[in-house]
Amino acid sequence: MAPITGIITTLNEEHNIVEAVNSLFQICDEVIVVDSLSSDQTVALAQQAGAKTYLQEYLGDGIQKNVGIQYASHEWIFSMDADERVSPELAQLINNLDLENTSFFGFAVRRKNLIGSRWVKSCGWYPDYLVRLFKHSEIRFSAVKQHASVPTHNCAKLKGDLIHYRYQNLGELFAKPGRNYSTRGAKILYNQGKRARSYSPFVHGTAALFVNLFIRGGILGGVDGFTLSLSIALNSYLKYAKLLEYQRDPQVRERENFNQVW
Questions:
Q1: Which residues of 78-89 are buried (b: 16+ CB within 10 A; e: fewer)?
Q2: Exposure check for the chain: N or C terminus, fewer CB within 10 A?
Q3: Do β-strands 84-86 and 76-81 pair in parallel, antiparallel, or remain unpaired?
Q4: Residue range 13-62, pLDDT digits in tens
Q5: DSSP run (H or E) holding 42
Q6: Residue 156 backbone dihedrals phi, psi, to 5 degrees
Q7: Where are the domains of the chain?
């Protein structure tokens, strides 16, 4: 089997990093942590767990995830976040791959998203296939600042789960500490020259609610599925409401720093 370098991007993940690093050592003989200048013990704990650490001010999602590749000793990369874990079943599948002779550029894994300890399957949360194991000379994360992914060109799927401890509780669906997605999204749209109309927040919010409840099965997911659908809709509504506010209110706009979206 070809050796694999594991890469984790972090910011203040001292409560997650040791388990994340240990998880990667199931399939990797090298683990690299690219840290966005954490103020806690993330870096020290990562080093104690056996990871190589590098500091890099946050550049945006895809760009940051690619930073660690320049330090990797191996051609094959497994990339994950600090709140994710390689399941034993997935580790076995990966360890059985013949990466030295495969014709594939990468492999997608199933991400198993949790709220607390509850596995949520609705709203597109499962199987949620993502390419996380890839040959970096052929493919890598798209160089975008939000919602980056590895292209699926010439990739195969593995029927093993990457466990994602996505939210600690339902409250975090609406206000996860340190992540204001609607403000970030509104700033990105404004910087791109996008404009909202008075009805845009209602249209986007309502559309997101309908799609996630009825097309992606949120209505079948009980309280968790319904609440998740509401949170996605609210985020969409607020993103366009804030974009509209930036357009209409110079005082609000002047208080925002559009050069520091991240």
A1: bbbbbbbbbbee
A2: N
A3: unpaired
A4: 999 999 999 999 999 999 999 999 999 999 999 999 999 999 999 998 99
A5: helix 42-48
A6: -110, 165
A7: 4-167, 170-255
